[in-house]
Design goal:
The chain is mainly α. The chain contains 5 helices and 4 strands; from the N terminus they run ββααββααα.
């Protein structure tokens, strides 16, 4: 790359053919002029801080957010797989209800669901999670820390 001063406010730049081709293609694709592309590139280059663009300063934060999203994805996958396993197991082991008993079963189901929601609300008010309790209960490592609130270490759903 070679630079020549043309005017006090302009600059003549000689680029390799490959750079010219890529610049043309990029400017055409974006619908902007080549001068705008070069100006943006120079602006980015001059905004270097300690040899790195300022945009790179947010990279550690983005890495943290990505890690959190991966944890959410893992939790979501665990939830979906657990629910699917439960439904499959429940449907395989439950006999269909006869027509005369269906209304009573629906009423009983509403009551049981209401109790479940009450228990769930109490459970969600705690600091620990069900996954943490499972890890503590079933993990082979006995040195794990007990739940934060040992008075409510397990949830009991009424049947």
């Amino acid at each position: 790359m070679r630079f020549e001063k043309k005017h006090s406010d302009g600059l003549h730049v000689f680029l390799e053919r490959e750079y010219v081709r890529r610049l043309d293609q990029f400017a055409t694709t974006r619908g902007v002029s080549k001068a705008e592309v070069i100006a943006a590139a120079l602006s980015s280059y001059f905004s270097l801080d300690d040899g790195r663009p300022k945009e790179w300063a947010s990279a550690p934060r983005l890495d943290k957010v990505l890690s959190q999203l991966e944890q959410l994805e893992r939790g979501q996958t665990l939830l979906i797989e657990t629910l699917a396993f439960f439904i499959r197991d429940y449907l395989a082991g439950t006999a269909p209800i006869l027509e005369p008993h269906q209304e009573a079963a629906r009423t009983r189901g509403r009551v049981r669901f209401g109790q479940f929601i009450e228990q769930l609300a109490l459970y969600l008010q705690r600091d620990s999670s069900f996954v943490q309790e499972l890890e503590q209960e079933f993990a082979p490592d006995a040195s794990r820390v007990p739940p934060k609130d040992t008075r409510t270490a397990s949830i009991r759903l009424q049947r």
